[in-house]
Amino acid sequence: MATLTTLDLRCSKLDSRAIIAIIQNAPRLRVINLKGVQSVTSDVLSHLVTCCKDLDSLDLSGCWDVYIDDVRSYIETLDEKAAAGFKVLRLNGLHLRNEGLIPTELLNHFFDELCNLETLTLQGCRQISSNMLISACEALGSQTRKSTIRHLNFSGCISLRADIFPAMSGLFPELRYLELAGVPGLLQENSQSDRTAFNRFLETLPKLEKLDIEETCGTCLDDSTLRILARATNLTHLQIGFASKITPGAMIDFIRDCPTLRVFEADVSIILLIDDMLTY
To answer: What's the number of CA atoms in the CB half-sphere (13 Å) around residue 33?
Structure first.
């Protein structure tokens, strides 16, 4: 196994001892996918530190015996070269070990130590809070450094609020894919300040290609958001389901003014708009 560079064990029934044995005998591993493998524990992570010095992609999504705290501890133990080599980290659905004692700086190492990270997905991590993300952004900003992240997924992170947007603005110039679906409390109903904060954040994403805010924008966002997104010269995918304040005319103008657009999903929004017009 000395030449093995990619290990995909997603949803396998291997126990932790077998996984560790593979890791110990495959020092050139660069990509490890353990998605849904229920035998993965923090002990597996400790062996990654000593055995996999060139790892650049790790997927622990749905590994219920691993906690975000464990991953943070893993990152802290990486040497500078190993941390700089990391490009992809997927932790969808993971929880925090000590829910009552959650440090605000939990995410700081994700943005700081992993200085070349390109993909971070935390979909369904319900305990990730605004304070954690703001702290990580402030730590990044204090270094006068911008993030290298291209794909950021916070869909289903229901503890996030709109106060993350001023903190994130200007720090993610490389961001291509942004997923914020299913976070109903992120943008408050009919809130002008939330709408302004979100719109200003979008203006700092010059390379944005995909945006998913289905079941998040509700009645907060309006036609002004589509006007900003129409200026995104690389945008190919937009999902805004349940955006009931965006008008049909604005949708038509957006489609006309966005020549790179390939996918536009506003299904439930259109139903809501038709219902409003019929009621009126």
So the answer is: 7
Are the beta carbons of 66 and 99 closer than 8 angstroms? no
212 within 8 A of 242, measured Cβ to Cβ: no
Q: Which of 182, 187, 210 is nearest to 199 (CA)?
A: 187
Give the predicted TM-score (pTM) of the model.
0.92
Give per-residue pLDDT as tens, 213-254: 999 988 899 999 999 999 999 999 999 988 888 898 999 999
Report how far apart the first and last C-alpha atoms of the chain are (Å, whole number). 68
Concatenated DSSP letters of 160-228? --TTHHHHHTTS-TT--EEE-TT-TTSS-TT-HHHHHHHHHHHTT-TT--EEE-TTT-TTT--HHHHHH
The contacts of residue 58 (CB under 8 Å, 6+ apart) are: 32, 34, 48, 86, 88, 89, 90
Nearest CA-CA partner of 89 in 152, 138, 26, 165: 152
Per the CB < 8 A criterion, the answer to whether 188 and 156 are in contact is no
Q: Which residues pair with 237 in a beta bridge?
A: 210, 263
